[in-house]
Amino acid sequence: MSSTQRYTKVAIILHWLIAFAIIAMFALGWYMGELPKDGPKQTAFDLFDLGLYTWQMDEPSSARTLYFNLHKSLGFSLLWLILFRVYWRISHTPPALLASYSALERKVATGAHHLLYLLMVAMPVSGVLMTLYSKFGLKWFGLEVFAGLDNADLRDVFKESHELFANILLAVFIVHVLGAIKHRFIDKDETLSRMSLK
Ligand code: HEM
Predict the structure, then answer these.
(1) 86 alpha carbon – ligand 1 mean position (Å)
(2) What are the residues facing 138 on neighbouring strands?
(3) Whose C-alpha lies nearest to ligand 1, atom 10?
(4) Is 46 near ligand 1, meaning CB less than 6 Å away?
(5) Where are the domains of the chain?
(6) Cβ-Cβ contacts under 8 Å for 73 (sequence gap 6 or more)
(7) Burial code of 121-160, b = ≥16 C-beta within 10 A, e = fewer?
(8) What are phi and psi of 139, to 5 degrees?
(9) Phi/psi at 66 (nearest 5 deg)?
């Protein structure tokens, strides 16, 4: 495959790294939301109760605080990686869609790609704004980034947006993956291999 028909190595690495990070952020977001607000405070946590890794803390905290801080710290890091990906996408024209795509496939694929970029940015930005207007602010792996402004109304606006964007992102993500599966197993074309490192 020539270089005009496949993605750059950087684009491919960013695609898979961010895809798996977003899946992990969904799992963490759903998991932490179920944790009780008045849970016991501890200094040692068996991470996700898997028996694989014990997280030692300096100060006792509830499981909810630990996983919220982890979600916020990972999400804040992911924001910068996503912004770099957007910069890379703008500065490196991607290969054209395969000539074999129908007009409808072109519309769905292009629409899904644009929506994915929009939502990839909207997710962490709404999360950061929710955190800014919360009581707690943002500590990036323990390092203070900003204090919370404690405005419940604005916090709720961005909390609702974060949840709405998550639902839309999940729906578009499913369409995107179903498309990739169709091209791999039904059309048996190059779609998936040009987004893979050889
Ligand atoms: C691509 C990045 C991100 C993804 C995919 C993501 C995903 C999610 C999901 C699925 C939830 C659960 C929503 C629900 O209960 O319906 C959630 C909740 C939450 N997220 Fe994120 N998130 C991201 C980035 C961030 C960032 C950067 C922050 C803050 C710095 C953040 C802060 C929060 C908070 C505080 C909640 C809990 C809301 C509540 O129940 O009070 N998120 N996130």
Answers:
(1) 20
(2) 146
(3) 26
(4) no
(5) 9-195
(6) 139, 140, 141
(7) bbbbbbbbbbbbbbeebbbeeeeeeeeeeeeeeebeebbe
(8) -110, 120
(9) -60, -50
Can you point out the beta strands (E) in 141-179? Answer: 143-146
Q: What is the DSSP letter of 143?
A: E
d(CA 58, CA 73): 17
Residue 133: both structure tokens together:
């207007």
Q: Which pLDDT belongs to residue 143?
A: 97
Q: Is 4 a residue whose pLDDT tops 80?
A: no
Residue-wise pLDDT tens digits, 95-122? 999 999 999 999 999 999 999 999 999 9
155 lines ligand 1 (CB under 6 A): no
Alpha-carbon distance of 47 to 55, in angstroms, equals: 6
Of 34, 80, 162, the one to substitute when testing ligand 1's pocket (max ligand atoms within 8 A of C-beta) is: 162
Query: DSSP state, 47?
Result: G
Average pLDDT over residues 20-32: 98
Question: Dihedral of CA 133/129/36/52: which sign?
Answer: negative
Q: Which fold has domain 9-195?
A: Fumarate Reductase Cytochrome B subunit (1.20.950)
Tokens 């190595």 label which residue?
9
